[in-house]
């Protein structure tokens, strides 16, 4: 009897050491320009980039990103300040760019609070992985959340949907202890 108890303890201990550790998820928020919050694993790093739009030309943008368990989590914020209306056209353009040369698995309208957007899932070309995105326009900013699973990752990971669906524009949805992300100068 004692031997079987020890064997069960040993089996449990081995199972816990073999199971991969799930990355800690954190709440993040940004008040610059648009004001939004989301959750993601790991530490988010910021990088200034240029975003090219056929409709509005080249625009400054910031990409916040982290990588955990073969999944790249990115949120891109593009500043369209000074541009006349055309929010839906910019969303459609960004969605079309995300679908270019991919196999579209899902493409549907989406809403976050009162903001309209698109949500899509695609298989990337050349078996490079799978991408799930949500694209919104709020207060003169295009906001794109994207989770990309690399070929060696789990295409059915719940982390992709958890990240993409976590976007909120209301500051009251920001969790206590959330980490503020500043736009780089």
What brief labels describe this structure?
7-stranded antiparallel β-sheet; 185 residues; 10 strands; disordered N terminus; 44% strand; globular; Protein Transport Mog1p, Chain A; alpha+beta
Q: How is this fold's topology laid out?
A:
Layout lengths: L1 H17 L6 E6 L5 E6 L3 E9 L3 E12 L2 E9 L7 H13 L3 E10 L2 E9 L6 E9 L2 E9 L8 H7 L14 E2 L5
Question: What features would you describe in this structure?
Answer:
- By secondary structure, the chain is α+β, with helices and mostly antiparallel strands.
- 20% of the residues lie in helices and 44% in strands.
- A seven-stranded antiparallel beta sheet has the order 3-4-5-9-8-7-6, sandwiched between helices. Strands 2-1-10 form a three-stranded mixed beta sheet.
- The chain has helices at residues 2-18, 87-99, 158-164; strands spanning 25-30, 36-41, 45-53, 57-68, 71-79, 103-112, 115-123, 130-138, 141-149, 179-180.
- The longest helix has 17 residues, at 2-18.
- Residues 1-21 have low confidence and may be disordered.
- The protein starts with a helix and ends in a 5-residue tail after the last strand.
- The chain has one domain: Protein Transport Mog1p, Chain A, CATH 3.40.1000.10.
């Amino acid at each position: 009897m004692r031997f079987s108890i020890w064997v069960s303890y040993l089996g449990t201990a081995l199972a816990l050491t073999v199971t991969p550790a799930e990355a800690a998820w954190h709440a993040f928020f940004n008040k610059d320009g648009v004001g939004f919050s989301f959750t993601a694993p790991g530490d988010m790093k910021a990088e200034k980039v240029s975003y090219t739009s056929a409709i509005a030309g080249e625009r400054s943008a910031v990409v916040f990103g982290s990588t955990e368990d073969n999944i790249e989590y990115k949120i891109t914020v593009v500043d369209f300040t000074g541009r006349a209306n055309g929010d839906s056209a910019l969303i459609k353009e960004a969605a079309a760019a995300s679908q270019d040369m991919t196999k579209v698995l899902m493409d549907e309208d989406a809403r976050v609070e009162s903001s309209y957007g698109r949500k899509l899932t695609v298989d990337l070309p050349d078996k490079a992985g799978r991408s799930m995105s949500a694209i919104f326009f709020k207060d003169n900013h295009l906001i794109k959340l994207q989770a990309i699973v690399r070929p060696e990752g789990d295409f059915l990971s719940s982390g992709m949907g958890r990240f993409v669906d976590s976007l909120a524009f209301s500051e009251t949805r920001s969790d206590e202890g959330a980490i503020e992300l500043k736009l780089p100068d």
